[in-house]
Amino acid sequence: MNGAHDLGGMMGFGPVDAEPGEPVFHADWESRVLAVTLAMGALGEWSIDVARQARESQPPAQYLISSYYQIWLAGLEKLMAARGLASAGELASGWAGGPARPTKHPPLAAANVAKAMTAGSPYERPAPAPVRFKRGDKVMTKNINPTGHTRLPRYLRHHEGEIIAVHGAHVFPDSNAAGKGEDPQWLYTVKFAASELWGPDADPRDSVTADLWEPYLESA
User: Lower Cβ count inside 10 Å, N or C end of the chain?
Assistant: First the structure.
């Protein structure tokens, strides 16, 4: 998706100012948004890729003026409304207007939060086909402009890179976010020379690495 979230390589947004001693949360409500988002995700009503797409699909004007956790909250509200987990009125008031509908998984109990957080969510899957590329292979990223979620940033499209690691097959986000199944695909780390991305003015010592799925790549 060529949305406002895909800012890699874009200019005009000013410097990234590091905040010395930056706290984990800048306000109490941010920690609550994180907690509610994780609790809702545990219900099994959507995948991590669907959640990312919900955040990315906010109107650009809203996205660009929103903080990190404001974006998370807007995405969560969109998911809940779309799946009948909360009405617009309930979201506005903060109160349930009726009994909750059944969900795929039961609510996450407080006593199980630590266990769930440390267990993680592995996304590696059995390979659907033999691996196509190996370390040292030169590849070209495809020039794609999907309307849905993708993990191939705009600034890396149609550029030559080198495979430097092969990570096995993993859930393919583009398919999973669209509700078309996990469609496991081989995952690679690809290294790009800075000059390939930014032109001759780039520092020749710099490079960018990105983890990219096989459907994004073709032989160079």
Answer: C
Task: Return left, alpha or beta for 61; rule: phi > 0 is left, psi -120 to 50 is alpha, else beta.
Answer: alpha
Give the chain's length.
220
Phi/psi at 82 (nearest 5 deg)?
-65, -30
Stated pTM of the model:
0.91
Domain count for the chain = 2
Residues 146/180, Cβ–Cβ less than 8 Å: no
162 and 108, same domain (yes or no):
no
Q: What is the pLDDT along the chain (220 residues), one digit of tens a residue?
A: 889 999 988 889 888 889 999 999 999 999 999 999 999 999 999 999 999 999 999 999 999 999 999 999 999 999 999 999 999 999 999 999 999 899 999 999 999 999 988 888 899 999 999 999 999 999 999 999 999 999 999 999 999 999 999 999 999 999 999 999 999 999 999 999 999 999 999 999 999 999 999 999 999 9
Sign of CA dihedral 177, 181, 183, 187: positive
The CATH number that applies at residue 205 is 2.30.30.50
CA angle at 46 for the pair 42 and 50, rounded to the nearest 5°: 130
Q: Answer with the one of 102, 119, 136 that is the final residue of a domain.
A: 119
